[in-house]
Specification:
It contains eight helices and nine strands. The strands form two sheets. Strands 1-4-5-3-2 form a five-stranded antiparallel beta sheet, with helices on one face. Strands 6-7-9-8 form a four-stranded antiparallel beta sheet. It has two domains: about 120 residues, Roll (Endonuclease I-creI), CATH 3.10.28.10; about 100 residues, Endonuclease I-creI. With about 250 residues, it is α+β, with helices and mostly antiparallel strands. It is about 35% helix and about 20% strand. Helix 2 packs across helix 3. It is globular, with a radius of gyration of 20 Å. A hairpin with a 4-residue loop joins strand 2 and strand 3. This is DOD-type homing endonuclease domain-containing protein. One of its GO terms (molecular function) is endonuclease activity. It comes from Candidatus Nealsonbacteria bacterium CG_4_10_14_0_2_um_filter_38_17. Pfam families: LAGLIDADG_3.
């Protein structure tokens, strides 16, 4: 809940992190104070401290879930404009963003959670975002190839956590006209979906990989579908993965 004083200003401890956004939850650590001019040598030291935030990269269910989300809606990139190594997510589901936020904290990163301000006449849904900064995580993630990822997810619990994150990003479940459910993962990376298909097979699910399908629109990449309409499998999938969002039952 965002708290304001009688003049509509943010109260201490809950402050918008950037122009055009509304702060929901700041990180635990503060590296810069708004409106304070630090000497350049202190600014450099603080930036180094920010980049060297040491995440826990030992594989846990939290890290496996994070990797699944990053292979879908999440992103890891370097911003030349701001000179930052960013791990982030934007989504209309606040519950999904909160879970992503908590997972980042669980691996010792220092994320912020906020909401983009609505622009008149643009968009019908609120858009939430989570961002964290870590050069260490950025370099580790960029070296993580699909074969390495597959080897890393060696236990059933880790596979389930990874698939949960990927499903909440790229998965969908809906009722068809015949009132039967259909489960699908849709992505432009066919090799990634092949890895996901293998992981699903190893925990007892057999989905069909189809495609590529030509996408409409200029510059859009062909899409692949990993899917099933088997009702028992779908019910078992939801029970096993236990997603926070996109629950059909």
């Amino acid at each position: 809940m965002i708290k304001r004083d009688t003049l509509g200003r943010f109260v201490k401890g809950i402050d918008p992190w950037n122009k055009g956004t509304v702060g929901i939850c700041k990180g635990n650590k503060t590296f810069f104070k708004k409106g304070h001019n630090w000497p350049k040598y202190i600014e450099r030291k603080r930036i180094v401290k920010l980049y060297r935030c040491n995440p826990n990269l030992r594989l846990t269910e939290n890290l496996a879930y994070l990797l699944g989300t990053l292979k879908g809606d999440g992103y890891v990139n370097y911003s030349k404009k701001y000179n930052r190594y960013i791990i982030g997510l934007q989504n209309t589901k606040l519950k999904f963003c909160k879970e992503f936020f908590n997972v980042l904290r669980a691996i010792n990163l220092n994320p912020s959670l906020g909401q983009n301000k609505k622009i008149k006449g643009v968009g019908k849904h609120k858009l939430y975002f989570v961002v964290a900064n870590s050069q260490v995580f950025y370099r580790w993630y960029k070296k993580l190839s699909l074969p390495k990822l597959k080897r890393l997810l060696s236990t059933k619990r880790m596979k389930i956590s990874f698939i949960k994150g990927f499903y909440e990003s790229e998965g969908t479940i809906f009722k068809r006209k015949d009132k039967k459910y259909h489960l699908a993962f849709i992505n432009t990376n066919g090799n990634l979906l092949r890895v996901v298909k293998t992981l699903l097979n190893e925990i007892g699910f057999n989905l069909n990989l189809n495609g590529p399908y030509k996408a409409t629109g200029l510059g859009k990449k062909p899409r692949y579908h990993l899917q099933t309409s088997k009702q028992q499998q779908i019910k078992k999938f939801i029970t096993t993965i236990n997603p926070s969002i996109k629950k059909a039952f």
